[in-house]
Amino acid sequence: MRPKNGMNRITRLASSSAMIALALAAMTPALAQPPSAQRSNGQSNNNAPPPVDVATAKALNAAIDALNMGKYDEARAALAPLKIDKLSPYEHSRLEQVLSNVAAAQEKYDEARAHIDNAIEAGGLNEQETSDLRYQIAQLFMAEGNWKAGAATLEEWFKTAPNPNAAAFYLLAAAYYQSEDYERALAPAKRAVELMATPQENWIGMLLALYVQREQFKDAIPLLLRLIELAPDKKTYWVQLSAIYGQVDDYANALAIMQLAYGAGPLTEDAEIRRLADLQLFNGIPYRCGQLLESSIERRSVNVDDKLLDKLANCWIAAGELEKALPPLAREAEITGSGETFVRLAEVHLQRSDWPAAQNALERAINKGQLKDVANAQVLLGLALLSQHKLAEARPWFERAQQSEKHRQTAKSYLQLIDSQIAAVHPLPK
């Protein structure tokens, strides 16, 4: 049986927005990094840009200064005197670029895209600059949450873009991910991680989310190890790595990772501590499991409910510490009022040969009712009474248990034992 809290927790972690944060807020055209390896400043990669009229340059610079200060009306006003029919193709393209930046800053994305189209159509840009502007169109679609249009625009851009960089592949993956098209998101997400010069936590996180969504757990493990190396203080990665080791049935590593995280101090949540306890019990170290839960109860870092008490009792029983198992079982029985829990409590008392305590617990269990196996409780109560030499009181419980096919033979054997003991004390006359 696998430890609990595995796959559900992985899914929640992998799909969290923190794991796939896209940082699109900074992707306005004015700030976006060109997506290709080559950059240009003029009509070609090697030539200086064409000259700009002094008055036009002054207006453009004034508009850019106003834009940088968030004064959008002033930026538009600075450009208003410029007459398009008097501008060169290069000046016209630059004017449209600045207007696009102003519109994007005001979240007027349709207008911003229209100005980019005008900048391209004006004919004043080289191939690299035109390619970068088409990339910015995709960014604008994504900035307004139109992921499908953004993905489609990027796919067209990729067909002609020279040397796309890692950021471009990440943006395409993000667009497909946000569109819930996980199949198409996978390839660009992998390429982005392969090409990144400096490890990017969000990029690795997106690829991880895709692997988990596809249940490619073995592929997810090295990504989580990289994330832990990048951000060792983020317990999310430790917990998720442990859960994924569990999914590939590597419970030794699942425990080791959780134990390391706990030893470092970041595990404080109730569910995390319970999972660690489950793994300790599953890996055959129940005594440590009991110690963990008891210390967590003392620190009030876990919610003490019937399930936790049941888990604690299981740890102590598995460790052979029957005395330690009694308090949590008794408390669980009082909390739940369940007859089944009183039966479990009685079984521990029976193992300890505490017959009166076992009798008391079994009587309470039977009185509570709704037992899954009433005859079993009847046999155990008969045994507790028989062990106290209360033969007359024990007999009726074994007789009732005989009605159960499952326990008939056992009950019959005990009845024969009672008869033999009575006969030994009061032999029949010859």
Give a written overview of the molecule.
The longest helix has 18 residues, at 408-425. Among the domains are: 284-332, no CATH class; 337-430, Serine Threonine Protein Phosphatase 5, Tetratricopeptide repeat. It contains 22 helices and no strands. The two termini are 60 Å apart. The protein has 430 residues and is mainly α. Helix 2 (54-68) runs parallel beside helix 4, helix 14 runs antiparallel to helix 15 and helix 18 runs antiparallel to helix 19 (355-368). It has helices at residues 7-14, 54-68, 72-79, 89-105, 109-121, 127-143, 147-160, 166-178, 182-195, 201-213, 217-230, 235-247, 251-264, 270-282, 286-299, 306-318, 322-336, 339-351, 355-368, 374-387, 391-401, 408-425. It is rod-shaped, with a radius of gyration of 36 Å.
Distance between the termini: 60 Å
Strand content: under 5%
CATH class of the domain at 337-430: Mainly Alpha
CATH overall fold name of the domain at 337-430 = Serine Threonine Protein Phosphatase 5, Tetratricopeptide repeat
What is the strand and helix layout of this fold?
Elements lengths: L6 H8 L39 H15 L3 H8 L9 H17 L3 H13 L5 H17 L3 H14 L5 H13 L3 H14 L5 H13 L3 H14 L4 H13 L3 H14 L5 H13 L3 H14 L6 H13 L3 H15 L2 H13 L3 H14 L5 H14 L3 H11 L6 H18 L5
Helix pairs in contact: 1-10, 1-12, 2-3, 2-4, 3-4, 4-5, 5-6, 6-7, 7-8, 8-9, 9-10, 10-11, 11-12, 12-13, 13-14, 14-15, 14-16, 15-16, 16-17, 17-18, 18-19, 19-20, 20-21, 20-22, 21-22
